[in-house]
Design brief:
It is built from ten helices and 17 strands. By secondary structure, the protein is α/β, with parallel strands linked by helices.
Length: 321
């Protein structure tokens, strides 16, 4: 099997990888498209000591499903957490916080940047007919964008700021568009700004952010500097939602968080059914696609994804040229 291999912070395309074998309750999925995420790039910088096939955003088709042959042929997207099912968080219904969880392409489970992957059938969601592959591949990050509204419902009239207009920040902004509240997005690069304008979403430059002016701030910049800006923008007794993952520590003034009574929420994976429904009802993430590469050029795809201002880079895992 051909796939992208990550080891010691270096990437290489290999054609000698073993074809994964699905066990009971699992499925073999032929990957169609895979999207490069900021977390994939942080793995290169040492965010987590992962060796194997990276990638966790994908759309594919089930080619084998021992015990459930009726699911063969389904076009699917997949949740990335593989809980053990036995630990206290799992028993309490919090499988995404399993103490021994494996995570697709991130932790102890090979990912989606290959011709095939294996996931539990319970993780796989059928993609409705009307959603093209190029939109379905955004299901995982769109679900992550929707998660923040589960954690902290936004009230009418509130002032909401999204810091960061990259891959995830754009999806967060699109998912919040049309709400009964004020929404603005901090955008640095011209293409980010033009996409927001095309979607009817107002943007700000970093030097236009007024301190203490927002009720809810979502930090999705992927940088410690973005956290600092987000914290400055938030009013006292406001809520700061953190979506970024990055290697290394960030400086935080904990005393000010206490004095200002800030609510700090970490936000990670979200609801796939809701994401698929938003895609079905017309949310279109395809303008975020900057380029598409064949699997054989996956290293070049990652190189482009690291460039400042780059948005979504896709890898066609069916194209081995």
């Amino acid at each position: 099997m051909r796939g992208l291999w990550l080891q010691d912070g270096r990437l290489s395309v290999r054609s000698d990888l073993p074809l994964p074998v699905p066990g009971p309750g699992e499925a073999l999925v032929r990957v169609r498209l895979m999207g490069i995420c900021a977390t994939d790039l942080e793995l290169l910088r040492g965010y987590y000591p992962f060796t194997g096939i990276p990638g966790h955003e994908f759309v594919g088709e089930i080619t084998a499903a021992p015990g459930q042959p009726g699911r063969v042929g389904e076009r699917v997207v997949g949740e990335i957490n593989l809980p053990c099912g036995q630990c206290p968080p799992c028993q309490a219904g919090r499988g995404n916080h399993c103490e021994r969880r494996r995570v697709l392409g991130i932790r102890e489970h090979d990912g989606a940047c290959a011709e095939y992957l294996v996931l539990p059938l319970a993780n796989l969601h059928r993609v409705p007919e009307g959603i093209p592959d190029e939109a379905a591949v955004f299901c995982e990050p769109l679900a992550a964008a929707l998660r923040l509204q589960e954690q902290r419902p936004i009230q009418p009239g509130e002032r909401v700021l999204v810091v960061g207009a990259g891959r995830l920040g754009q999806l967060i902004a699109l998912s919040l568009a049309g709400g009964d509240f004020s929404l603005q997005v901090v955008a640095r690069h011209p293409r980010q700004r033009s996409l927001l304008e095309a979607a009817g979403l107002p943007w700000l430059a970093e030097d236009q952010v007024t301190a203490g002016a927002w009720d809810l701030v979502v930090e999705a910049s992927g940088t410690p500097a973005g956290f600092t800006l987000a914290r400055q923008a938030l009013r006292a007794a406001g809520t700061l939602i953190l979506k970024s993952t990055y290697a290394g520590p960030a400086e935080v003034d904990l005393s000010r968080l206490v004095v200002d009574e800030i609510t700090l929420i970490g936000s990670r994976c979200g609801p796939f059914p809701a994401a698929l429904d938003r895609l079905r009802r017309g949310l279109d993430p395809r303008p975020l696609i900057d380029a598409r590469y064949p699997l054989a050029q996956a290293v070049a795809a990652f190189d482009q994804a690291t460039r400042p201002g780059a948005l979504k880079i896709l890898i066609d895992c069916r194209d081995a040229s």
